[in-house]
Structures are given as C-alpha cells and as structure tokens.
Amino acid sequence: MARFPGVDYMLIDSQFNEEELLVRQTARHFVDDCVMPVVRDSFNNGKFPSELIPEMGRLGFFGANLEGYGCVGMSNVEYGLIMQELERGDSGVRSFVSVQGALVMYPLLTYGSDEQKERWLPRLQTGSAIGCFGLTEPMFGSNPAGMKTTAQRDGSGWVLNGEKTWITNGTMADVAIVWARAEDGIRGFVVEKGTAGFTASDIHGKLSMRASVTSSLSLSDCRLPKSAMLPGAKGLKGPLACLSQARYGIGWGVIGAAMDCYETARSYSVLRKQFDDRPIASHQLVQEKLAWMITEITKAQLLALQAGRLKDQGRLDPAHVSMLKRNNAWMALECARLSRDLMGANGIIDDYPIMRHLCNLETVKTYEGTDHIHTLVIGERVTGVSAYM
Questions:
Q1: For the chain, which domains are there?
Q2: SS3 218
Q3: Is residue 188 helix, strand or coil?
Q4: Which pLDDT band holds residue 1 (cuts at 50, 70, 90)?
Q5: I need a surface site. Which of 6, 230, 321, 358 has the fewest CB within 10 A?
Q6: Model pLDDT for residues 272-300, shown as the tens digit of each residue
C-alpha cells in the first residue's frame, strides 16, 4: 500500500518543529501499515480492530499529552497530529484513543486519588486496561445538568442507580468513569468491570462508527466503596473539562478524515476519463469542488494549529475549542459529501473510504457537543448573553 503523501497546500509543515513532524510520521506510518489493511473489514463487520491496541500503547498514543504514570508527555500539537492521522484511518480508531486518554486517563490524573492513579493509569497507558466515560443518558445528551443517575451515601460507601448510553468502549472497558448526582452536586466515580449491579450492553444496528464499540451502561443498586469517588471533581465543571479535552482531539482528528476524502477524490479525478477521453479533473465544476475542499482543509489546519499552540501555552478556552470542533467537523463532513459526488457511483463502494468517512462524520458532527450547542457557546462568548433556553 502506498504511503499517504499528506495534504499541505499552504506549506503548514514549515510551522511544525522536528519532533512534531516525527510524531506525525510515526502515527502516519502506523495508520498506513496497521489500520488501513484492516479497517474496511472492521467497519463492514461492525467490529473494533482490538488487535491494534498493544501497538498503540507501545507507541504512546494513550494519554499522549499527559505526564507521569508512563505517559510520554507530548505537546498538545503532537497529540493533535496523532489524532489527525488516526482519524484518517477511521473515526472509530481515533475515538477509541480519545476516550482512553481524554475521558478516562485525564479525569483520573486531574481529579483522582493517588491510589486511583497508581492502580489504573499505568495499565491504561499501555492498553492492558481499557476505560470508558459514562456521562450521556437516554434523555440527557446536550444537557448533562439534567442527569438522572444518582449517587447516595450508604454508610461509608455509595450506591449508584441510573442509565448511561452512547458510551464508546462500554463493553470493552475494565473501568468506567461514571458521573452521578449526589447530595452535594455532580460527582465522578471509578466503577470497575464486574462490580455487582453494574452491567454494559452493546448498541446494535449502527450505520455509523461501525468500527467502534458503542454501549449502554446500567447501574442498579451498584455499591461502591468510599475510595471509588474522584475526590477532586465536584459539579459539572469536572465532566465538562474532560469533554473539552476530547473535543480538542476531535478538532484535529476530522482533518485527517477530510484529507483522506480529498486526496482520494483528487487522485480519482485525475485518472478518471470521460468525454473525449479527458480526465474529469479538466472540467471546471470538478476543479471548483477540489478548490473548495483544499481551501477549507487549509483553514481547518491553521485553526487546529493555533488552538494547539494556545493549549500548550495554557491559553486555550473552552469557547475556542467549540469553534475548533464545530468548524472542522462541518468542514470534514462537507468534504466527504463533495468527494462522494465527484466519484459518482464509485463513491459508495467500499473499495474507497469515502462512504465510510461520510457515515462516521455524521456522528462526529453530533457527539461531544452538537453543532448547535457549539454555535451557542460561541454566540455567548461574543455577546455575553446565554441563549441555551
């Protein structure tokens, strides 16, 4: 299989240092050599390619931008480039790594006790343990403040009751970070697989994110010791901070999916001949679509790079992340749609990645905050007026 050549119209590579380019090259080669040969069958069969986990752990992809407990402490730009390359392979692969690092390892490192960190972080970093993040509920997605899952004190411990859904890695997970409403506000809990009253079941019939495990979690009189609570997290600020970490990775990741669609359609348009044996790339309407795609990809690259630099400086605001996620997810989905259009009937067959990316991106545009919610976050930032109701 040929190496991916990259997409760099505006010479953005000149803005990366040697370490950042090396990290991207490592991730790019991993995707070319390990993800691409298996991802079509994984998507078609509705199965996550779990055989990739040990190598992703060895390469330091899990919690790559975290420090300590075996984490490699990469910069946020380096982490973003990993997400970009993984999603070029498939959104499901990037999502697995995002959840493991941003939604499980990050809250453990930021809010967990020393005991929780020492027990779980080294194993999560290598991939010998898998985690999931339980926030979304059947009736509460965009409004996590309305969650119904409860945590009641029982002696020195806790009893959790409730349902979580659309949980990536749910049935694979050895540990779940579950958010519940306690008397003193929203609290996070470390729930281990096999705990009495805690069960997970897969959601079937997905037409998107098929190379990803998506589950529902049930907590029925699930008894936990006092030590299961994340001591540093109280209120919605905790889970929302985790989501900002994940959304940042999505903002980079979708660029990879857009690149793959664009490069597939561009190469196809040069080779595909119609009308007097001329390549369809010679037609104005085809070039217009390619020009739109490369322009939007370039703008998304610049937005992601600036967000990464700000994050490394400690200056990235959640409202900045909303713009990154909203713009880049929309851009990638539109690139997938235009690429499908350029390739005609060939765009819908699995010999090409277009339809797989298109289906995945319909989900990516919605999860971790819908387009509408991020629009309102940006609107509040520029007006000072909340408009969520």
A1: 12-126 (1.10.540.10), 131-228 (2.40.110.10), 237-383 (1.20.140.10)
A2: strand
A3: strand
A4: low
A5: 6
A6: 887 788 998 999 999 999 999 999 999 99
